[in-house]
Amino acid sequence: MAKKKKPKTDRQILMEKFEKDCQEASKARKANRKLREAYKSDSEKAENIRQKLIADLKRVWKHPHNPFRGFSASRDRYRQLGHFPEVMVTDLFGNHQEFQRAAGIRDARGTTKVKNLTAKLHAEAEILKYAKEYIEPYYGVWDRRTRATTGVKTVVVISDAHGKFIDPFAKEVMFDVVRMVQPDGVVANGDMVDFPKVGRFTEIPGAGNLSLQDELDFVREEIFRPLTNLCPDAYRIYVMGNHEQRLVRYLADTAPELADLRCLRWDRLLEIDEMGWELVFGGNWLAPRQGDRTRNIRRTWKVLHDCFVVTHGASIAKNAMESEIQRYGMSGTSGHTHRPGLWTLPTLAGKHLSWTSTGMLASFAVGKDYMAKSPSAWTMGFAVFTIDPKTKTVTPPPDPHRRGFCGIWRQDLPALESGPGSEGQTMVKRRKIRLDRPERPSIPQKLS
Ligand SMILES: [Fe+2]
Ligand SMILES: [Fe+2]
């Protein structure tokens, strides 16, 4: 008894038809190759054949025996099913993309650009909406205090903690100073968070293991909350740096439909609403290009007591302090360079102006990413300013090259060999460095 033949599946039937079409197309290509000679010297014939090719590509695009998912007029598909050889496409259209454009299958160059830009602006609009709801309400909340022009003011400025990369000893000294000075204001001058996972620089050893939640919890509970508790009567200003901008854009852009969840709201993540911090951001959240985002940081600044500017800064150039003082025409301070320093500018108009770069609160380990295989020029520091609004005099901390800089100047110490989380060993080494001040009160483990 003859074995009963298994019926073919629809897919097998379709594949057979497709292969048959491919064989016929191959024969047609061979036959049409001779047309090349006809159009080489006759432009009218060339146009005629161009139209035939266009019609042929449209046929391939909507080919009835298509065994693949979706329509395609790709180069590969045309090589299989096209009735004209590829060399004729090159002769008459230049390349396959132009061939597709002539057939109306691919967008014109300008249209693609417009579509890309529209998509980008749509994403930007989400970021703008997020910022309007969760950041802008915290603008100017301490304006009444920061505009005060009576009495001498003391302001502590810290910057560049870079989240969990903060140096534990630097943090301890900074808390001590804030506790002792009881300043009129505290300014967190940008880059208080790091977020290596959402940035371009992710080569810091161990950085890949830092979770966003861990870092946010750390910054909130180990930096902002103790600071708030140590000087509850001071005004508290948080100036946005490039790393803060990075996180806002990431949160708003990644899942805009989830952005109002408590766990994604910027104000709730750091509880700046409960702790009473003012946010400073002077740029435009609509920033599709990197250049726009850098400009945003340049536009982010705040004047305290009518004579002192705080800004994170956007330049890491050697003359960053000089250019900032020229830009603002006022005494001020910035971070971002991670190099503490002081620049003065004598003026005939009034008192001498000064610009202070606060250095960083982060440990040397944070520098490994940016300056691999070279000794880090970055140094820890922060500053206490005395401001007399009446005479518009700003007394910056002493020159950091001398002992007494209100912060830490310990370039002599080697960079940390291990990543974040190696506090124990580091602390032992650093406690050997004597600070020019009497007995330091011990810091309680948990500040209430
Ligand atoms: Fe920084
Ligand atoms: Fe920065």
CATH class of the largest domain: Alpha Beta
Number of domains: 2
CATH topology assignment of the largest domain: Purple Acid Phosphatase, chain A, domain 2
pLDDT averaged residue by residue:
80
The number of helices is 17
Series of H and E elements: HHHHHHHHEHEHEHHHEHEEHEEEHEEH
What would you say this structure looks like, in words?
The chain is an alpha/beta fold and 448 residues long. It folds into two domains: 21-102, no CATH class; 120-408, Purple Acid Phosphatase, chain A, domain 2 (4-Layer Sandwich), CATH 3.60.21. It has helices at 10-32, 35-40, 43-61, 75-81, 86-93, 96-102, 109-134, 143-146, 168-181, 212-230, 242-254, 266-269, 272-275, 290-298, 320-328, 367-370, 423-430; strands at residues 153-158, 185-188, 235-239, 278-280, 301-304, 308-311, 331-334, 340-345, 353-358, 383-388, 393-395. The strands form two sheets. It has a six-stranded mixed β-sheet with strand order 4-3-2-1-10-11, covered by helices on one side. A hairpin with a 3-residue loop joins strand 5 (301-304) and strand 6 (308-311). Helix 5 (86-93) crosses helix 6, helix 7 (109-134) packs across helix 11 (242-254) and helix 9 runs parallel beside helix 10 (212-230). The termini are far apart. Mean pLDDT is 80; it is low at 200-209 and 400-448.
